[in-house]
Amino acid sequence: MKKLFHNYYFSTLLFYLTILLLGFIIKDPYVITILIFAGLNALSALGLSLLMGLAGQISLGQNGFYGLGAYLSAIFALNYQIPVSLAVLLSALISSFLAIFLAIPALRLRGHYLAVATLGFGEIVYLLLNEWGPGGPSGFGNIPKLSIGGLVLEDPLSYLVLTWTIFCLFFLLLQNLSRSTFGKTLHALHSSEVALRTLGINILSLKLKIFIFSAFLTALSGALYAHFITFLSPANFSVFYSVLLLMMVMLGGIHTLWGAPLGALFITLLPEVLRPFKEYDVLIYGFILTISLIFFRKGIFQALEKGIKYVLSFRS
Amino acid sequence: MSFLLEVSHLSKAFGGHEVLKGVNLRIKQGTIHALIGPNGAGKTTLLNIINGLETPNKGRVFFKGKDITSLAPEKRAKLGIARTFQLLEVFSGLTVLENVMISLYAKNPWGFFKSLFLGDYFNPQERDLREKALFFLKEVNLLPRAHEEVQNLPAGEQKLLEIARAIALEPEILLLDEPAAGLNNRETRVLGEILKKLCENKKITILLVEHDMELVMKISQHVTVLNFGEVLAEGTPLEIQKNPEVIRAYLGEET
User: How far is A190 from chain B (nearest CA, A)?
Assistant: First the structure.
């Protein structure tokens, strides 16, 4: 029981409660909205962290899945009157199904080649949203809000709870996964694919599962985004979003799943904190990012871990 | 007497360079069969072709009488062919125990969703795997190192780990690529005993590629000598030691 108390279930719960408490104390709808965006980004980044940190596969096409999730869900709810919660789930499932068609050719590639192939996919989705998406480049609105069992989530606070609950659920599941032997097998992809093959492991199917799950998380995040913001335009789904996710994962710490939520919070909150600097904010933003990548080479998580250990060593 | 593994008229060229020229090899069940020869004789390429990492230009590979020439390595592993590598291919960043657990998992995998929902703490299969893995580590005397990360082990022990990982598949034939390279005399002796034990107690047939002649002569029942991609000689260790052609290939021609 003591072992259970010290493990990741406990730390995840603590993290979850901290975020919610922050929302309930501050109550300012603006801050809560930012925290919701951070939660959505964290969910997307979790997908990428799974792919990059655990399985060592890079993807620059996450914006494609994010866009697919958002647009599909919005269109389902708006044009086909499918209940929103169902539309969210459906769009995430369809997007991850589409991921198979990208994954089968792309996952035969490695490293930079895989990055370029996925980049191409993201760009294709972006162009399609521009050409074929409702409203074209200027987008469309009036997307229904999410409702669960007749209860419409109008209030940002309720959406905050929803977003971070979903995130923390998947966060726990993925930590389960990374500790299982399946997760270790994913980790082994980093060091020797040849050895895995000679042990009888079908590498393509292994990578495929992870790629699909990663696409599912990012598409789910996109769908939740659509029903929160209620207005979509392709501009939010350019390759810049993938780069942003990459930055979150790298800055948060690529060797741990904690990198996703920490990086997402950092990258999402930083521009808001820098608002008072007015026209210089982008400059300072870039400066801070560069500095943090230099000093937290292994990510914020490891820096925090070190810091806590340092403080504890003083007390004893 | 049927042969467990049979290689016939195998040829392989990389670019214009012919590495194997019509090699024939037959391995009896339950024996330790050594494959020796000077550097560049094509030994590793032959192993790669037997376990499917390379495809031959000509010739066939039969395993238990079945043609497996065009089978993928992962399928051959399921049939019972396991191997180790000359240049280490361990899973760094993971512990010794976890390396073996991956191999056991590969043999009997469970679903993705089971891992997702149960993790390692709530999944009884993980506990079974752990115990089984410890058993295989004991076979190669690596039990004290179980919880260390593999990259921190000396090369000799990493080789032993590769053997543990391979026998965890419970294979019928084990292909070993220079397992004694980098080991000192005492370690080599221990390795020899381990291999003998595997062959006698577990009935694993072993194809041993090795440069350490003392080890080869001590534990193998049959030796094939490969030179410039061709079989130079075949026979018992004693016959090979006396074969003038082999001596010439190794020591050069007298002038």
Answer: 8
